[in-house]
Design brief:
Elements lengths: L3 H6 L2 H7 L2 H5 L3 H4 L4 H31 L1 H11 L2 H41 L1
Length: about 120
């Protein structure tokens, strides 16, 4: 509608004069959206969350099917040697068992303190 010649005649200076880009970019977002904040919070955010969740739900499963992650993981695990797999399992087990030990010590200490307070109060 405007024409190529008109567009060619415009340069960045004319555009900068017509659009206050510098003043817009120097303002905080809060100031730019102050007039619309209620609308954004009340209507925009719920719609965005609903549509976003719907998109993720609809596209999550097909994405994983396209990536063939189960095949990739199976291929990678099968390429490990038995000793490497054993080493991985043992290292993971050590970490988990040490955490269980620390958790048991913590819970035992808390229960012991509680029992001590109860015994002092009753006895």
């Amino acid at each position: 509608m405007i024409g190529r010649e008109t567009i060619k005649q415009w340069n960045t200076e004319k555009t900068a004069e017509m659009l206050p880009v510098a003043s817009i970019l120097n303002k905080p977002v809060r100031e730019l959206t102050a007039n619309f904040s209620d609308i954004i919070v009340e209507k925009g955010v719920p719609i965005f969350m609903e549509k976003g969740a719907e998109y993720v739900i609809n596209h999550f499963q097909p994405l994983f099917q396209k990536l063939h992650l189960d095949d990739i993981v199976e291929e990678q695990v099968s390429s490990f040697s038995v000793s490497r797999l054993e080493e991985m399992v043992v290292s993971i087990t050590k970490k988990e068992l040490s955490m269980i030990t620390y958790l048991g010590a913590l819970l035992g200490g808390i229960i012991g303190l509680f029992q001590g307070f109860v015994t002092v109060l009753i006895g």
